[in-house]
Specification:
The chain contains 17 helices and 23 strands. By secondary structure, it is of the alpha/beta class.
Length: 478
């Protein structure tokens, strides 16, 4: 591919046309013929490597200021420009798909999976990009462990191109706040943007909840239509502030799409799905338990209605959905029950604990931990929520990364100590699981929180294999 086909500004700058290998902002991955885009990050500024990258074989340097090299162009925002170059390199695949973006603190993964299911069940080919992996209608890729939700610029547009090649018509993508802030989704126009909720998370990156909210709201500057959950104050605020055509959904209040007569059970939730727009109501039995999954399933069905599908067929498909790995997933159901869930924020912990309370016949033994190098302010709140809503807590490690796991545990203990709960702290997560299971009695629920679908523990920069599905089987097998 030629430089002028990817970078129109290069011709205007008088740089000779040449063959291009790829586009990258990664100094370690750059090879001869690549365009190198200088990105200023938290710990490293790519501008400082411009001369080195040119010597290594870069065809062009893209920067925000003069780096002192000959073959360069200067642009106002290199993050946005990296997205433009990546899109051009892959033939602008985003323009050939009906894009659906899902943002919010919790619920993105579940909603994305259900939307994909409903569309596919109705004869539409829908790709999905998010935390649990990249499904491109015939090919599959694991999510990047370092950037698990929304892929980096170049990888993202490469996946979209692959989806187009595989015949996809739609693509639903989890739009993280970091991705929106870093312009990873720049140049993508969404047929529909969805907002789920906003609770405390990622403040290590955004600095404040206000900045976190502003980042989420950016999705609706590039959406034809919006679907907003109005069950929390940020949802109501975003609904009032955004300018694009919009619809609302709720699991507790009147909205364009809402639920009534909710009933919970250990393996499902039932309710009436109501639409003010169509003035219709449908009974729903949805195969994932929990009141929060009422909101998730309403969002997915409403999204497909907003995309033009028949509401009755959406509901039929919704009821055929069989659940999702690591989301309120039952790993063992015998004398007691073992459930695995991805909950790793105070809000998510509160919701999953409320869910299991609805059907628990005995005690709730909650095993959980806080991640390293991720928003330390939320740690005491996590402990407080578990202390108020569980009967026994087992506090352990969850991807400590480069932080001291004992230090993390002590910060979570500050919240637990404000309650009367019986708890113990076991740094080794496998031993913590063994202890939690050893405490279980008939009718109890052992709730393993934080890992969900993940099959690893992160220590430093090493990803050690750790699959709670396997571990529970091994322990119970003994």
């Amino acid at each position: 591919m030629k430089l002028y086909d990817i970078c129109h500004e290069a011709k205007e700058a008088g740089i000779n046309d040449r063959e291009i290998n790829s586009v990258t902002d990664n100094t370690e991955k750059l090879v001869d013929g690549d365009i190198f885009v200088c990105i200023k990050g938290k710990n490293f500024d790519g501008h400082s490597a411009a001369k080195q990258m040119l010597a290594k074989g870069a065809s062009l340097i893209v920067a925000e200021h003069d780096t002192g090299v000959a073959d360069q162009i200067i642009v106002p925002d290199t993050r946005s420009y990296l997205a433009e170059l990546s899109a051009n390199y892959y033939g602008n695949p985003q323009k050939k798909l009906k894009m659906i973006g899902v943002t919010g603190t919790n619920g993105k993964t579940t909603i994305s999976h259900i939307i994909q299911w409903i569309l596919n069940d109705n004869g539409k080919k829908c790709a999905r990009i998010g935390t649990t992996g990249i499904d491109l209608c015939g090919t599959y890729h694991d999510a990047d462990k370092d950037v698990p939700t929304t892929p980096r610029h170049t990888e993202l547009f490469g996946y979209l191109a692959e989806a187009v090649k595989n015949g996809a018509e739609y693509c639903v993508i989890e739009a993280s706040s970091q991705a929106l802030e870093q312009s990873r989704l720049h140049g993508i126009w969404f047929s529909l943007g969805i907002f789920t909720n906003l609770t405390q998370d990622h403040l290590d990156f955004h600095g404040s909840k206000e900045n976190y909210c502003k980042a989420k709201k950016k999705l609706f500057l590039q959406s034809d239509k919006a679907l907003i959950c109005i069950d929390d104050k940020y949802g109501k605020r975003i609904y009032d502030e955004i300018k694009c055509p919009k619809s609302s959904y709720s699991a507790q209040d009147a909205a364009d799409y809402y639920s009534v007569n909710i009933k919970t059970a250990p393996s499902y939730v039932s309710y009436w799905f109501s639409s003010d727009r169509d003035e219709k109501s449908f009974p729903v039995k949805f195969g994932m338990p929990g009141r929060f999954n009422v909101a998730n399933s309403i969002a997915a069905a409403a999204a497909c209605c907003e995309l033009g599908l028949d509401i009755g067929k959406c509901i039929e498909s919704l009821q055929r959905f069989k659940g999702l790995k690591g989301r309120c997933e039952v790993l063992y159901d015998g004398e007691y029950t073992v459930i695995c869930d991805y909950a790793h924020t105070a809000d998510a912990l509160e919701k999953i604990l409320a869910t299991v309370k609805d059907f628990s016949k005995g005690r709730i033994i909650c095993l959980f931990g806080a991640a390293g190098e991720r928003d330390g302010e939320k740690r005491p709140d996590m402990g407080l929520v578990v202390g108020k809503n569980a009967d026994i807590a087992v506090l352990t490690s969850d991807n400590p990364r480069f932080e001291d796991p004992v230090k993390i545990i002590k910060e979570v203990e500050k919240g637990l100590d404000k309650t009367m709960i019986r708890y113990c702290s076991v740094e080794d997560r496998r031993k913590a699981i063994e202890y939690a299971l050893s405490q279980a009695q008939e009718g109890d629920i052992v709730l393993l929180c934080g890992k969900g679908h993940e099959t690893y523990q992160v220590y430093g920069d090493e990803y050690m294999h750790f699959d709670e599905h396997e571990i529970v089987r091994e322990i119970l097998g003994k």
